[in-house]
Amino acid sequence: MVILAQTGLIALIAVIAYVRVGGIGLKSAIAGGVAALLSTLITLRRARVAGAMVETSPNTTMAVLYWGFFQKVAVVSLVILAGWKLFDLDPLYIFVSLGVAQLAYLAPLIRA
Asked: Following DSSP, what letter does each residue of 22-54 receive, concatenated?
């Protein structure tokens, strides 16, 4: 549900960015969206691993969750940095797309 909502929000921001500033806005919004989707996928994967381990080793479970958080921060930072510095994308649309995509976590609350 969250990934589908994120994809829709990313597409919406990408279209708005394309209309406002052209191709560079589109690419920037997609880069921010990729960062958001990667963050969500890492969270999902780590939560599943931690859930499977919770009964056997609570300490290891916390280590798995902390490692997942570190991975999220590293991956999102690298995607933003690569888009901004290597591909000369507009950082405004990278951050807007990333931020708006995170609003998709509210989708299950709205539906209820």
From this structure: -HHHHHHHHHHHHHHHHHHHHHHHHHHHHHHHT
